[in-house]
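Before anything else, study the sequence and fold tokens given here and see whether the fold suits the sequence. Record follows:
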Amino acid sequence: DARSHREYANWLLNEGRVNDVGPELQTVERLAPTDRDTLKLKGLYARYRRDLTTAEQVFEGLVRNFPGDSFSAWNLALTLADTGDATKQRRAVELAENEVRKNP
């Protein structure tokens, strides 16, 4: 069941056990590779590991395909803010401001 592996992987991330998430994520990707929650976990794991390129790609796709998904928009903003690229950082601010306007 992909859901139980995703929940465990999220728990590991919340506990700061980033290095233990890999095997769980592999299982989740095998069981439900295109599921939105799987993609969110993949992006979050990449962001925690500072793999900003992967995190940006994953969250960009989620924001494009699910424009109302605040979780993905916030994580894309955080990812872009961490890149050090001024253009991406401006976009991060725009995304964050948009989310605040949607959910004051």
The radius of gyration is 14 Å. Helices lie at 2-14, 21-31, 36-48, 52-65, 70-82, 86-102. The mean pLDDT is 96. Residues 80 and 91 are 7 Å apart (CA to CA).
